[in-house]
Amino acid sequence: MGQLINGQWIDDAGMVALSEGGEWQRTPSIVRNWIGADSPDFPAEPGRYRLYAAWNCPWAHRVLLTRALLGLEDVIPVSFTSPSRNSNGWVFDQNAGYVNDLFGSSALHEIYIAGEPGYTGRVSVPLLYDTKTNRLVSNESADLVRMLPQAFATSTTTSIDLYPKTLRSEIDRWNDRIHSKLNNGVYRAGFSESQSAYEAAVEDVFETLDTIEERLVDNAYLVGDKLTEADVRLFPTLARFDVAYFGAFKCSRRRVCDYRNIWKYARKFYARDGIADTVKFDIYRRGYFSRSEKRNPLGIIPIAPDIDWTL
Hints:
Elements: E1 3-5, E2 8-10, E3 49-53, H1 58-69, E4 78-80, H2 108-115, E5 121-122, E6 127-130, E7 135-138, H3 141-151, H4 168-183, H5 185-190, H6 195-215, H7 229-248, H8 260-270, H9 281-288
Parallel strand pairs: 3-4
Antiparallel strand pairs: 1-2, 1-5, 3-6, 6-7
């Protein structure tokens, strides 16, 4: 992924954070400011903030889903990096149509430096940037999914409440479980460097999917009959599962389309207005099967599975 140290770019793409037992560990986000209607530093002004995202990143996908569900596309413009990182990390490839139209920068780490010249930390997406004061707002997807509906409640074009007060404790429980065992679980499986770490991760993944399958027997969504933040955090993993995680990350016990209730739920989510525009199956396939010394040394990209997501 690469990182900045005191504003200097360091390419550490070959390094993977592992525990002594060979288990992959996610690096926490550190830019965690908050937009608010009464915030003196980051007021909720439509058009003021720019979202940086990558199509293949599931964490950025959460924010794109939130933006689409609430109709905030005109309120929060977005710039996409090229789907594939190189020695400069996330980059803007003008020839492929991935252009940063704020500064004309060639790499995302230049945006981080523009917002915080001495920044030290990972250069990741999603990133929300304050174009008025040239400051970094947040690179934590969970915060952004929670923050944007609250901050821009008067600017939304829909009446969806992704975090209703009466359901918050249940939403939080699902969020914690999905994040640790499924969203992160597939990565723990894919980047494991021991058999025991891999098997533990895969067990978490499918135990969680099995629980969700049972939950959806009598519920349209994870928390009852209305879509909530928990569903937003689940869907990016489901969208990538059969085309990428099943093969590239060896999560091969079952496919999402093999689950009767989850498959129906996933396609219903995909059919909502604006959601299909946030999903890029071919980019997922090519990204997760890109050349990797450990996972895919020959860089051979498999043929896409013949799966129809339309209802």
